[in-house]
User: Which sequence fits this backbone?
């Protein structure tokens, strides 16, 4: 029986993480009418828990996934161009402790062994970096690799373990605000297809006879009748399929946890670089500067409950001990941890394979329509942050074929959000700032901060702020008007959306009680919250910080 109130649409996308948002933008660019929904906020699930790297997948060379490395390096280079406001080059150092170790295990891994190499010597690293340069040559944005002698490595990083015999250096990239990038992809899609919709904090409740029933904030209900459904729910894929009337066992995820350290001495040693190194168990660990703190990750542990995933004491201890082994010239302790986060990678179910060797490649199996479910369901399995655009393009082409629609445009050259018209040279930046200051009345120094933080979207925020914006307590470079603009323009529903995803206030360890109250007050005025709602948002945010991120906020 047809639900007359249900809105007919071309495509429903369930899950507004990086893959869902990427597909949404691509489909909207083709003129389709789409709806993207997420039971949380945009980019609040697995996409909020990456290592914050945009990388070519150096370690995938070991497993012979050359196509994935080629695709990843190319996509990394595109993001450096199309999202230069949040994706930036990251110099990387690989400390090496032997000349020849790891060759035989690497050969076995290449030919299908399911146990990872325990060590990678200089010869193996040199060969890997040479291949990495080769695969990264398409649309190259950064320098080639180099090798450092032991004395040079220790001179560059004096705290490094004296066991090193050499070091490799190369460039990858980091994303300074991954959650914002998800938000910007979504907003770009809406701009390309005004009839499309994006709903956060909206869950799939059920499906019957081709109508999908949704429930949103304050129990608001919607129904849609899609021609195609894309399940981009990441580690929740199998659960979402069940609500659509499908049985699937597609996901066998692994948990990755990270910590942020307040450690000025470590930051001085890093000097803007990432150290990409092996733990004593052979697992890859990394540490690099991130918003004034040191980001350390990641663990790789089988896990299957994405709603109850946090960084455990054992994981924190493992990461800290890895740093002690790498940098014995520095002191590390648990008191330096100011924030932690964890997520489940939506990897394909792979029985008996070591977590680090499960493929990060992607696939999109499709379940054909049935009489009870008259739309096909495409599930997005695996993938990685860096390759979301290529994955989105593949899925979009599948949808276009299904709907007999011709592709209008590709996405390789479409800038993302604030990356549009981003000044690329010092001269272009100075000209942009001068023009923006003349238009908005804001100071050049203030606009420089906004451009660095939001890309060219900073112009709209500067216009909203005007000449004399009011600074927030305990965060002098953020203003009340800046938060007000975010709340009014970026689909904020909860206080946590602001602190955890629209800004980097939480992950950088800046949250204080005065700041939380000030931001909540701005949100209350912009959203029309009652006093009771404002207090409830503060309580819920403090609970979330403690339970999910190890941060205590005493509201009193």
Assistant:
């Amino acid at each position: 029986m047809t639900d007359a109130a249900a809105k007919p649409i071309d495509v429903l996308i369930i899950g507004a993480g990086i893959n869902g948002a990427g597909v949404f933008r691509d489909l909207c660019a083709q003129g389709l009418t789409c709806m993207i929904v997420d039971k949380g906020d945009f980019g609040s699930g697995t996409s909020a828990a990456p290592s914050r790297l945009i990388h070519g997948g150096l370690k995938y060379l070991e497993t012979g996934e050359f196509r994935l490395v080629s695709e990843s390096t190319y996509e990394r280079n595109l993001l450096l161009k199309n999202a230069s406001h949040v994706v930036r080059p990251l110099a990387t150092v690989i400390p090496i402790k032997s000349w020849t170790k790891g060759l035989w295990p690497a050969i076995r891994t290449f030919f299908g062994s399911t146990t990872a190499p325990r060590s990678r010597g200089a010869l193996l690293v040199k060969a890997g970096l040479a291949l990495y340069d080769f695969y990264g040559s398409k649309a190259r944005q950064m320098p080639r690799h180099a090798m450092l002698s032991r004395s040079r490595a220790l001179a560059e990083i004096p705290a490094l373990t004296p066991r090193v015999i050499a070091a490799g250096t190369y460039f990858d990239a980091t994303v300074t605000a991954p959650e914002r990038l998800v938000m910007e992809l979504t907003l770009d899609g809406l701009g390309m297809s005004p009839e499309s919709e994006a709903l956060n904090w909206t869950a799939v409740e059920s499906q019957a006879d081709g109508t999908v029933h949704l429930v949103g904030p304050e129990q608001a209900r919607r129904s849609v009748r899609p021609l195609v459904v894309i399940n981009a729910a990441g580690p929740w894929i199998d659960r979402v399929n069940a609500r659509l009337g499908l049985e699937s066992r597609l996901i066998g995820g692994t948990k990755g946890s990270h910590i942020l350290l307040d450690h000025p001495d470590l930051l001085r040693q890093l000097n803007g670089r990432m150290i990409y190194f092996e733990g004593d168990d052979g697992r890859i660990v990394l540490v690099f500067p991130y918003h004034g703190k040191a980001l350390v990750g990641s663990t790789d542990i089988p896990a299957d409950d994405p709603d109850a995933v946090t960084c455990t004491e054992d994981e924190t201890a493992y990461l800290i001990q890895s740093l002690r082994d790498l940098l014995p010239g520095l002191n590390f302790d648990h008191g330096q941890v100011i924030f932690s986060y964890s997520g489940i990678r939506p990897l394909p179910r792979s029985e008996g394979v070591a977590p680090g060797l499960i493929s990060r490649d992607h696939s999109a199996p499709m379940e054909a329509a049935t009489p009870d479910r008259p739309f096909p369901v495409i599930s997005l399995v695996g993938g990685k942050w860096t390759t979301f655009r290529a994955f989105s393009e593949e899925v979009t082409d599948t949808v276009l074929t299904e709907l007999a629609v011709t592709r209008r445009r590709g996405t390789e050259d479409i800038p993302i959000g604030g990356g549009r018209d981003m000044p690329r040279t010092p001269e272009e930046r100075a000209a942009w700032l001068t023009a923006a200051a003349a238009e908005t009345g804001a100071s050049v120094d203030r606009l420089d901060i906004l451009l660095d933080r939001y890309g060219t979207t900073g112009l709209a925020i500067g216009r909203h702020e005007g000449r004399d914006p009011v600074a927030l307590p305990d965060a002098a470079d953020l203003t009340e008007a800046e938060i007000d603009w975010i709340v009014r323009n970026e689909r904020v529903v909860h206080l946590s959306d602001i602190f955890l995803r629209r800004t980097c206030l939480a992950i950088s360890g800046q949250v204080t009680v005065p700041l939380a109250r000030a931001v909540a007050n701005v949100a209350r005025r912009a959203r029309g919250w009652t006093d009771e709602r404002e207090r409830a948002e503060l309580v819920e945010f403090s609970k979330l910080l403690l339970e999910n991120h190890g941060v205590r906020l005493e509201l009193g």
User: Anything to note?
Assistant: The chain has 17 helices and 22 strands. The radius of gyration is 23 Å. The longest strand covers residues 221-231.
